[in-house]
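Entry 14. Structure prediction run on the chain below.
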Amino acid sequence: MINISEQAARQINRLKEDGSPAEAFLRVKVVPGGCSGMSYKLDFDQTLGEKDKVFEENGTKVVVDTKSLLYIAGMTLDYEGGLNGKGFTFSNPNASKTCGCGSSFGV
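Output returned:
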């Protein structure tokens, strides 16, 4: 399960309005890299893979491949805006360490 906060859903929908097709969804992926070993990657996509898992909450669809889901199951995707906002934030119960910027983690 991936949880999507209301703030994250609003920001995803705003970004989608800036040129992504209506049927596009947010793909969350875990890739090697970052100062803690693994990083989150967010992209808009329109193609569902055979083993993709789809999560819908607050009117927003998020898709995760099964390999990435092993690392982020139970995660909450949030958004912090404003002058001191961080952008998208990840509250990942599987992360044993995170970096200062919050965009990479280790398990």
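The radius of gyration is 13 Å.
Filed with the rest of this week's runs.
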